[in-house]
């Protein structure tokens, strides 16, 4: 019986048993109104059980992986990734950030004291941070997690390969545009135009800037080309230029994403 129990706990399908926090019984109607999804990647997940427990108590949705699973991670909406490199050598730890940055998710690396340089600690931002796991308290890690999520200003569950404005969703990976749940049929040029406006973060882009970003600097067509495509895009999105919901015209300058 004991051996069967040991096999059950060591099975990959039952890893979640190790991370089921002992929480106080919630009051009736008590729940988390919003949450952020945090993925933890650690070859030794049990060493982070206290962190997992505290994150869960604070209403974060926590998933734990023992290794980097690109296929699984690519389809998950992730707000923050915590990568445990505390047992890695300096060579192994230095190779990891490039792989993480390519995934486009804010990442907190937990390293051992020897692998934490002062330069890395000073460069910490909402998109990438490094902490020494052995010399940091759980409270300090939680504070850094909260800070990264707050600075990133990302909506809970919003994917890094998607952008959303009101009920308009642009999926960069699938090259798809949705209004609510309805998929809008746009051309590649219209998609690139919308993407350029979204990446500007609300700043105004002149017609020339849009031409350079969408058609390339070698394109010598007239600026009315931009107007034609914006008009077509607005029609498909049912966006009235007089009271724009998605794309606003700034007279004499260009276009921007509407407030």
Tally of contiguous helical segments: 9
Question: For the largest beta sheet, what order do the strands appear in spatially?
Answer: 2-1-3-4-5
Terminal Cα span: 63 Å
Helix-strand pattern, N to C? HEHEHEHEHEHEEEEHEHHEE
- Helices and strands: which structural class? alpha/beta
Overall residue-averaged pLDDT value: 75
What is the CA-based Rg, rounded? 23 Å
Number of strands: 12
Overall outline: elongated
Residue ranges: pLDDT <50 for 5 or more in a row?
4-29, 91-97, 153-157
Helix content: 25-40%
Report the biggest beta sheet as strand number plus sense, adding barrel if it closes: 5 strands, parallel
Q: How much strand?
A: 15-25%
Structural features, described:
The protein is elongated, with a radius of gyration of 23 Å. It is of the alpha/beta class. The protein contains 9 helices and 12 strands. Helix 7 crosses helix 9.
Short description:
With 259 residues, this protein is α/β, with parallel strands linked by helices. Helix content is 35%, strand content 20%.
Keywords summarizing the entry:
alpha/beta, 5-stranded parallel beta sheet, 4-stranded antiparallel beta sheet, elongated
Please write out the topology.
Layout (H helix, E strand, L loop, with lengths): L1 H9 L26 E5 L7 H9 L3 E5 L4 H5 L5 E6 L4 H14 L3 E5 L6 H5 L5 E5 L5 H15 L9 E4 L2 E4 L4 E4 L2 E3 L3 H12 L5 E2 H8 L9 H14 L9 E4 L3 E4 L2
Parallel strand pairs: 1-2, 1-3, 3-4, 4-5
Antiparallel strand pairs: 6-7, 7-8, 8-9, 10-12, 11-12
């Amino acid at each position: 019986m004991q051996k069967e129990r040991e096999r059950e706990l060591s099975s990959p399908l039952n890893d979640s048993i190790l991370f089921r926090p002992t929480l106080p019984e919630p009051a009736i109607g008590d729940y988390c109104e919003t949450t952020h999804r945090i993925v933890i990647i650690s070859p030794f997940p049990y060493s982070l059980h206290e962190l997992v427990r505290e994150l869960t108590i604070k209403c974060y949705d926590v998933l734990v992986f023992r290794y980097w699973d690109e296929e699984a991670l690519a389809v998950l909406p992730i707000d923050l990734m915590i990568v445990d490199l505390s047992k890695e050598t300096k060579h192994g730890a230095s190779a990891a950030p490039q792989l993480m940055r390519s995934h486009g998710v804010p990442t907190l690396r937990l390293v051992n004291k020897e692998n934490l340089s002062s330069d890395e600690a000073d460069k910490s931002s909402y998109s990438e941070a490094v902490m020494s796991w052995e010399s940091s308290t759980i409270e300090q890690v939680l504070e850094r997690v909260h800070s990264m999520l707050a600075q990133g200003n990302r909506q809970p569950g919003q994917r890094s390969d998607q952008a959303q404005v009101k009920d308009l969703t642009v999926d960069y990976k699938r090259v798809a545009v949705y209004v609510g749940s309805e998929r809008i049929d746009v051309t590649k040029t219209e998609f690139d135009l919308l993407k350029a406006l979204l990446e500007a973060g609300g700043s105004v882009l002149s017609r020339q800037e849009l031409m350079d970003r969408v058609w390339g600097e070698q394109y010598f067509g007239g600026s009315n080309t931009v107007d034609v495509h914006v008009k077509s895009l607005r029609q498909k999105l049912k966006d009235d230029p007089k009271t724009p919901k998605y794309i606003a015209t700034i007279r004499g300058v260009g276009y921007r994403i509407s407030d």
